[in-house]
């Protein structure tokens, strides 16, 4: 009989213990026969590849949008002309170009000599000659102020936007070094100031500074940023543009396949979410490093404009990485909270207890779900899947979702899932009108 001592003094195993021992032996033999876990290796490879491609996909899409989408490019670069540091650089360059063709000091000196030739006494002309210096400074300050107002005016902003549209159309030529308005020269990306000088010349003449008409049709340039990286990237420009449309989808397929092949789907989803979020943090760090390198590669007086221009130009890229970062963290958190860990179980239990407390409070207040409760209970899984699918669809249909959009969608989804949990009541949980006494 079981439970009695054997011949050697050992207690024999019960039937349940023997069954459990046999199960463990079978499991060990199965693992020994299984050999190399190819499925797990394949899942890990796909997940790692997908996480590595995520930041590359974001970069290629951003580059493609800036080059191929004229409206997006104008929206990206349009605020540059409104930045004070950029306005200062353009104002100084335009004013210096005007004074390189209009020598105010020489004009004033010639005027004094002309007065002397017309019989003005020397003591008067000598005094006037002493005023040519202050007069020159006053005129230069006036012109500089007038140019600053012109650069900050809506008219120049329109000229700027039109130049941006032209630049967008010539972006392929920029990367090949043949653009007319934006050129790549000696490791620098330079902006043609011809349209700005023309606008300033016209408005100065209209304001009474007629000598500005002497300025010919010139096209000086100002450096926008260092172009070493841009020049090195010319060879892969066409490749980036072509893969921008399909690389994000390939990345999603790799991640989805990795999660599907993994033996523990939940752990794989957590890893995928954190991996994608980590890739976005790498891009953010790289942007900061590149910004420091660019500012350090230009003269000190151009550093503020370069920093401001860089921040404006990459702001949509930063918005995109924040969005993808939020998506990765939300997916990882959702997968973790649905798992069997002590923390996840405690959180789910606390939420369920809170919803149960609300349900009981509503029942005491006379609130009844009627036939809705049993119906929700019957289709609760379908309702949850449908709510998640709707949340994903809303995210996909939004043209330019932000990180805040992701968080709002996640919060709304949690509220809807909580409502389903609140309404989920089996039929037997509903009190009947007739109760036993």
TrEMBL record:
Keyword set, alphabetical order: Membrane, Transmembrane, Transmembrane helix
Membrane-spanning ranges: 41-63, 236-262, 274-300, 320-339, 381-398, 404-423
Keyword flag S-adenosyl-L-methionine: no
Keyword Membrane assigned: yes
Entry superkingdom: Bacteria
Name of protein: Integral membrane protein
Organism: Amycolatopsis panacis
């Amino acid at each position: 009989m079981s439970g009695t001592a054997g011949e050697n003094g050992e207690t024999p195993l019960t039937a349940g213990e023997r069954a459990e021992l046999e199960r463990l032996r079978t499991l060990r033999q199965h693992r020994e026969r299984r050999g190399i876990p190819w499925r797990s290796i394949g899942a890990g490879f796909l997940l790692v590849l997908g996480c590595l491609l995520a930041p590359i996909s974001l970069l290629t899409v951003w580059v493609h949008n800036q080059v191929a989408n004229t409206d997006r490019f104008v929206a990206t670069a349009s605020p540059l002309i409104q930045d004070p540091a950029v306005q200062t650089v353009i104002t100084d360059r335009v004013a210096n170009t005007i004074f390189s063709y209009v020598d105010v000091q020489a004009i004033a000196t010639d005027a004094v000599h002309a007065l002397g030739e017309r019989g003005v006494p020397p003591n008067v002309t000598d005094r006037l000659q002493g005023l040519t210096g202050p007069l020159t400074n006053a005129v230069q300050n006036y012109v500089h102020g007038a140019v600053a107002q012109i650069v900050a005016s809506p008219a120049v902003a329109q000229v700027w936007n039109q130049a941006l549209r032209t630049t967008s159309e010539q972006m392929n030529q920029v990367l090949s070094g043949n653009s007319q308005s934006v050129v790549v020269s000696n490791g620098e990306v330079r902006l043609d100031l011809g349209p700005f000088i023309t606008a300033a010349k016209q408005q100065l003449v209209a304001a009474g500074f007629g000598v500005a008409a002497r300025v010919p049709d010139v096209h000086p340039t100002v450096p926008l940023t260092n172009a070493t990286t841009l020049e090195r990237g010319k060879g892969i420009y066409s490749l980036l543009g072509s893969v921008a449309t399909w690389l994000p989808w390939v990345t999603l397929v790799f991640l989805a396949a990795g999660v599907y092949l993994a033996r523990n789907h939940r752990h794989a989803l957590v890893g995928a979410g954190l991996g994608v979020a980590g890739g976005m943090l790498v891009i953010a760090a790289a942007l900061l490093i590149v910004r420091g390198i660019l500012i350090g590669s230009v003269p000190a007086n151009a550093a503020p404009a370069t920093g401001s221009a860089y921040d404006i130009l990459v702001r949509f890229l930063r918005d995109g990485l924040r969005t993808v970062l939020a998506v990765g963290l939300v997916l990882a958190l959702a997968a973790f909270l649905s798992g069997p860990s002590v923390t996840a179980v405690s959180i789910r239990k606390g939420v369920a207890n809170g919803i149960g407390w609300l349900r009981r409070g509503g029942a005491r207040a006379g609130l009844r779900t009627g036939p809705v409760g049993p119906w929700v209970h019957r289709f609760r899984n379908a309702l949850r899947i449908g709510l998640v699918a709707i949340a994903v669809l809303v995210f996909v249909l939004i043209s330019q979702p932000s990180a805040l959009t992701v968080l709002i969608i996640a919060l709304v989804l949690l509220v809807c899932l909580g409502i389903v949990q609140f309404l989920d009541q089996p039929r037997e949980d509903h009190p009947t009108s007739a109760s036993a006494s």
